Structure formats: structure tokens, C-alpha cells
Here is the input.
Amino acid sequence: MKLGIFAKTFEGMEPVTVLNSVAAAGFTCAQYNMACSGLPPMPEIITEAQARSVAEAARESGVEIVAVSGTFNMIHPDPAVREAGLRNLATLAERSAGMSTTLITLCTGTRDPIDQWTAHADNNTPEAWQDLLEAMGAAIEIAERYEVDLGIEPELANVVDSAEKAHRLITALKSPRIKIVLDPANLFEVATLDEQRSIVSSAIDLLADRIVMAHAKDRNPDGSFATAGKGVLDYTHYLGRLKAIGFNGSLVTHGLSASEAAGVAAFLKNILNGHSAGAGR
Here is the structure.
């Protein structure tokens, strides 16, 4: 597996500055965010030169751009917000090749009008699912036009809140452009060790043929998020299950500070090299 990190973990508004920090911390790839180019995360305009500067910085730093973040609220209660997100997605997709990547990560969305990462009771309604199908259909048309793939991530706060719903969406859309970004810490809040192992194994087995990226963060015993290796997630089990399905893509950590990055890189390398993380991790 390739070891990566969210580029926006590091300060800077120039791609070369940020990606050199990624490399210095011990990572070989990154999930890029346009904020690292001094732009909004989902810009209305990305110039050819701005895209090219990302690819040039990747070559100079030796850091592969394995994805670029294209998250917006795909089931926002205001259709105009959804439409604006799709327009900006097209902008991002058009420039992805220029940034030397072919994967855009998405957020399947929530009915919460303020925060796309906050759960809402209406996420489980038929209307929310239908809005997601329509938005994803439009996103697939964009992906086909610019020859990019779309990575969706099961996330408890979003409409696709489980591996089962992700599989249901894939089945409904019937598009090879839909890929999976798997983050086990987004599949449970509080669970026993046996429960979390079962949840993670089932998700990996169900979605195995679509997983193109794995995320790495953690959960504290109270359910709050933690830095990878600092919580209750059984990383030996998680990475072992990924190896068992033949996954050789990128393992990308996030939800950590820049000062923690080198330590997390060392922790993940240790597990990938076959060393146990110890009981409970």
C-alpha cells in the first residue's frame, strides 16, 4: 500500500510548499485540496496554470496526487446549493488530469443545511435517497466527460451511512466510475472490539471490488475521533483485511495535526511491515 495524508494537514497556499511538507513527514502520496493552492476547496475557476503547478509540485516533491477533494453537500435541502456544487465539481474534474490525478472524493451529503458532516433525521427518507440518485447521476455524467472516477465514503453523518447503503448506491447507479473510499472509523462510534472487527470485515468484503482508497483515523472510547493509532481501532485487523482482498492502493491518514504526521507515518509503516499494533489497535 502507498502511504498518504491529506495535503491540507500542512500549512501553506503553494502546492510545492505543502507537498514538500508531505514528503518530509514520511508520506509518498497525498489527497489534495485546492485550499493548498490558495483557492476555495471547491473553486468556481481553476486555471490551467494553477492545475499545472500541482502536478509540477508533485513531481518535484516525489509525492503522488492520488485524489483531489471534491466534497459538497449532494443532498442539501436547497437545490441551488446542490447545483452550484455540481458546477464546481465539473470545474475540478476538467482540471484533474492537469493535476495528475483521476480520482475525486465526494460527500454523499446530509439534510443539515449548515454542515455537510452533521447528521439529520431526514437523511433516511426516500426523498433524500432520490435526491442523491439524481445528484450522483449528474456527477457521473461529469466523470464520464472528463474521464475521472468518483470516490464515495460511507459516513455515519451522511445519507450513505453504511457499507450496505454504499453497495445499494453502486447497484442502483450501475457505473464503473463509482469507487469506494473506506474509513473504518466512519462505520462505528462506540463498539466492542469484536463488534468493530465484524463491522470492518463485513464492509471490506462487501465493497472489495470498488475500494480504491483507504483512510486512516481513529475513535476514542467515548466515540469521538482520534488520531490514527491513538484510539480503539484495531489497525492490525483493518490493514490485514485490506491485504487479504489484495488491496494495494493508497492508505491516507487525516484528522491529525502537522506535528503528529511523522509519528502516524511511522505507526502505519510499522503495521504494514507486519508488526502488531498491540491489543485493541
